[in-house]
């Protein structure tokens, strides 16, 4: 009996243990369900609670509960407030780009128009005044050391270049060129048009250097050592350049005219679609503020050139239809399509470039202030360049070839006969002078406002850069970058000067020889820090890199006077 009682008590204890274990597992399962919404499968050996656990697991993992969880699941955007605020600012920047870009484009368009009208209006008058000074010089006597002032010499050279190139252009048959181009296939014309665009940029890049070399060679002080080939070779090079560039623009205008007059308009559509290829080539590249400034100048020049090409096409077509005004409305849709595609491509391109490179839309105000600074500085007494030349250097827009082609087209399209026609031409010339003067006054006033808003007045009183100072600065820049270790080792007896201290002394010595220019707060406003890796000092003898590093110099927007997209380099 004692054995049976002990065995019975043992079984009851085992059952109590099993019950406690089952209760513990059930409580644990409930807690996990409250935390995660997940259940654990109970042991299959549990005879009393196994079936109940399986039923609960199946009910918790049902499809209805999953769908309910997905429909009622929530999240809080304020947990990542910085990221979403940045995304919203990017959207606002993209929305501001069209307005800010068109402000810059409009200002740049009138700058190009001012330089373009200068060739037709004030340049002939200045040439006449310079020639009158030469003719009256024997009577009045030599009042100074120069026969003509440097600006007058440049004006006379421009006038002679225009006259010689116009006489050469008179032998070019526009009609023969038109029919020669029209006989080509559509694909060939498309390739030709693309080649002409590239050639135009290359000519614009190198042409201003040729003209600047001619102006400096003709006006260089005589006491300096002769380091050039002579004025006449430079003059012949300039005449050849202007003539070839004018021929290139004429072929470009003729190709566009063929596209306008094609029956199915397929060539015009292909040429307009070529603008959108420009988005692919520029949007996915890294751009700094200075690179974007160069691209903006390129777009201003390209848009103004396209407007002049469209004007030439309209003149040629109106001449063929005896100046019938009804034909102008036939050309109007195609002209609007060309202009609209150009504007759309520029807006989309700049919007995504600023988005991908985290550039603010306010940068276009800086670009506008920089262009305004060029205009204001060219009006000062100590100006070292003409305004039209500064526009040419800044934007790559050279008005001489384009003006020469427009004169050639107008003289061949419009026949002047009788005194009434001469009176109309005189009135038209006076109207152009009036437009030029009004445009210059408005531009000068707006430019002064932009310069004041950018706090750039102090830079107007900086002395112009000279060749000596630029050489000294370049030498100092090279000394900072590379230092050649001498062959002999520096011993501790001679001072123990390290590479770092020697480099610092050399750089300081070079910097002290360079003239210091006054700086203003606008230097920091118009400069962009270079985020690239710092340059390292290389030991020439060992080929090893030293441990010293320094940051590259900042590039001021006012120092960018090259159309670098054409292939020029900024030093």
TrEMBL record:
Keywords per UniProt: Chondrogenesis, Membrane, Osteogenesis, Transmembrane, Transmembrane helix
GO cellular component, one term: endoplasmic reticulum membrane
Gene Ontology biological-process entries: cartilage development; ossification; positive regulation of cilium assembly
High-level lineage: Eukaryota, Metazoa, Chordata, Craniata, Vertebrata
Localization: Membrane
Compositionally biased region (Basic and acidic residues): 10-38
Topological type in the membrane: Multi-pass membrane protein
PANTHER family (alphabetical): TRANSMEMBRANE ANTERIOR POSTERIOR TRANSFORMATION PROTEIN 1 HOMOLOG
Assigned protein family: Belongs to the TAPT1 family.
Phosphoprotein keyword on record: no
Protein name, UniProt field: Transmembrane anterior posterior transformation protein 1 homolog
Source organism superkingdom: Eukaryota
Residues that span the membrane, as ranges: 104-121, 160-181, 235-260, 397-414, 420-438
Organism, scientific name: Xyrichtys novacula (Pearly razorfish)
Stretches the record annotates as Disordered: 1-53, 508-533
A Pfam short name: DUF747
InterPro entries cross-referenced by the UniProt entry: Tatp1
């Amino acid at each position: 009996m004692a054995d049976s009682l002990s065995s019975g008590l043992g079984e009851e204890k085992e059952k109590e243990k099993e019950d406690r274990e089952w209760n513990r597992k059930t409580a644990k399962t409930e807690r996990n369900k409250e935390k995660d919404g997940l259940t654990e499968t109970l042991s299959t050996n549990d005879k009393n609670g196994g079936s109940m656990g399986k039923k609960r697991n199946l009910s918790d993992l049902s499809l209805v509960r999953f769908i309910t969880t997905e429909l009622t699941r929530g999240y809080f955007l304020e947990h990542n407030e910085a990221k979403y605020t940045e995304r919203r600012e990017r959207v606002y920047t993209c929305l501001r780009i069209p307005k800010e870009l068109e402000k810059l484009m409009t200002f740049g368009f009138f700058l190009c128009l001012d330089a373009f009208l200068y060739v037709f209006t004030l340049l002939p008058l200045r040439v006449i005044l310079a020639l009158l000074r030469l003719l009256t010089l024997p009577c009045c006597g030599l009042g100074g050391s120069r026969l003509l002032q440097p600006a007058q010499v440049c004006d006379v050279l421009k006038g002679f270049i225009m006259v010689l190139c116009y006489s050469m252009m008179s032998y070019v048959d526009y009609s023969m060129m038109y029919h020669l181009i029209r006989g080509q296939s559509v694909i060939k014309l498309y390739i030709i048009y693309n080649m002409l665009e590239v050639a135009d940029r290359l000519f614009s890049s190198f042409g201003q250097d040729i003209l600047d070399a001619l102006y400096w060679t003709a006006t260089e002080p005589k006491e300096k050592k002769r380091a050039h080939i002579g004025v006449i070779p430079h003059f012949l090079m300039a005449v050849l350049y202007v003539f070839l560039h004018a021929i290139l623009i004429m072929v470009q205008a003729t190709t566009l005219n063929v596209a306008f007059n094609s029956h199915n308009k397929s060539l015009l559509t292909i040429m307009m679609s070529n603008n959108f290829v420009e988005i692919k080539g520029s949007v996915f590249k890294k751009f700094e503020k200075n690179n974007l400034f160069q691209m903006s100048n390129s777009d201003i020049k390209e848009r103004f050139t396209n407007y002049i090409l469209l004007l030439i096409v309209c003149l040629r077509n109106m001449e063929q239809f005896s100046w019938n005004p009804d034909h102008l409305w036939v050309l109007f849709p195609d002209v609007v399509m060309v202009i609209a595609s150009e504007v759309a491509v520029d807006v989309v391109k700049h919007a995504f470039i600023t988005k991908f490179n985290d550039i603010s839309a306010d940068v276009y105000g800086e670009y506008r202030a920089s262009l305004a600074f060029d205009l204001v500085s060219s009006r000062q007494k100590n100006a070292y360049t003409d305004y039209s030349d500064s526009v040419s250097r800044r934007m790559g827009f050279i008005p001489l070839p384009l003006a020469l082609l427009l004169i050639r087209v107008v003289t061949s399209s419009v026949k002047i006969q009788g005194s009434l026609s001469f009176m109309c031409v005189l009135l038209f010339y006076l109207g152009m002078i009036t437009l030029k003067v009004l445009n210059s006054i408005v531009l000068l006033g707006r430019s002064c406002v932009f310069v004041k808003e950018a706090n750039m007045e102090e830079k107007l009183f900086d002395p112009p850069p000279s060749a000596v100072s630029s050489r000294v600065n370049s030498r100092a820049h090279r000394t900072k970058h590379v230092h050649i270790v001498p062959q002999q080792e520096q011993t501790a007896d001679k001072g123990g000067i390290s590479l770092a201290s020697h480099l610092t002394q050399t750089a300081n010595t070079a910097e002290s020889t360079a003239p210091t220019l006054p700086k203003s707060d606008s230097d920091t406003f118009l400069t962009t820090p270079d985020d690239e890796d710092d340059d390292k000092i290389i030991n020439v003898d060992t080929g090893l890199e030293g441990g010293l590093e320094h940051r590259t110099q900042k590039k001021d927007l006012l120092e960018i006077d090259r159309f670098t997209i054409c292939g020029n380099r900024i030093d």
